[in-house]
């Protein structure tokens, strides 16, 4: 690559200009990438299923049957996390509706926040179920490795 490319790339990263700015570098054109939006608490480990599955299969040395079982377990958890994220968005909209009126609608805000708590309880129960099923599936040596990954922060729940 030509050395001036790095200069241009760095300047484009620092430029607060529009997202659609494109410029040519030789024959190729480069479009500035958007920065990711901030994540909520429910999206902390929102990789889908494949990345944690591959990581756990590698680190825990899982066999094919265990990988299939873990894929099903993680898929259910991913779905529940997506539902919790949707319930959180609905809760925020409900609180915003309660604030929007001339007088604060305490009952509507309480109902929206109750729905958020219920979603968090459902997610908590699904995480517990996932942990229980994962524990049943693993042999003692794999459980020790999983506990180490959790303690060291290499894997999060």
Distance between the termini: 41 Å
Oligomer: single chain
Share of helical residues: 55-70%
Trace the largest sheet across and list its strands. 1-2
Tell me the number of strands. Answer: 2
How many alpha or pi helices? 5
Shape: flat
Q: Helix/strand-derived class?
A: mainly alpha
Mean pLDDT: 80
- Poorly predicted parts: 18-32, 40-49
Question: What proportion strand?
Answer: 5-15%
Tell me about the biggest sheet?
2 strands, antiparallel
Q: Could you tell me the radius of gyration in angstroms?
A: 23 Å
H/E series, N to C?
A: HEEHHHH
Set out the fold topology:
Blueprint: H1 3-14, E1 22-25, E2 28-31, H2 50-60, H3 64-100, H4 106-137, H5 140-152
Antiparallel strand pairs: 1-2
Helix pairs in contact: 2-3, 3-4
Structural write-up:
This protein has 157 residues and is mainly alpha-helical. The protein has a domain at 63-152. It is built from 5 helices and 2 strands. A two-stranded antiparallel sheet has the order 1-2. Strand 1 (22-25) and strand 2 (28-31) form a beta hairpin. Mean pLDDT is 80; it is low at 18-32 and 40-49.
Descriptive key words:
mainly alpha, 5 helices, 5% strand, 157 residues
What is the gist of this entry?
This protein is mainly alpha-helical.
């Amino acid at each position: 690559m030509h050395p001036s490319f790095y200069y241009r790339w760095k300047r484009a990263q620092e430029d607060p200009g529009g997202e659609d700015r494109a410029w040519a570098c030789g024959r190729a054109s480069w479009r500035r990438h958007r920065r990711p939006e901030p994540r909520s608490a429910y999206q902390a480990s929102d990789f889908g299923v494949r990345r944690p599955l591959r990581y756990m299969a590698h680190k825990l040395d899982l066999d094919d049957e265990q990988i299939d079982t873990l894929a099903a377990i993680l898929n259910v958890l991913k779905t529940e996390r997506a539902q919790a994220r949707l319930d959180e968005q609905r809760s925020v909209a409900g609180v915003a509706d309660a604030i929007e009126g001339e007088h604060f609608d305490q009952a509507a805000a309480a109902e929206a926040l109750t729905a958020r708590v219920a979603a968090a309880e459902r997610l908590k129960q699904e995480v517990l179920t996932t942990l229980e099923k994962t524990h049943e599936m693993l042999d003692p040596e794999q459980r020790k490795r999983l506990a180490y990954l959790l303690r060291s922060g290499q894997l999060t729940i």
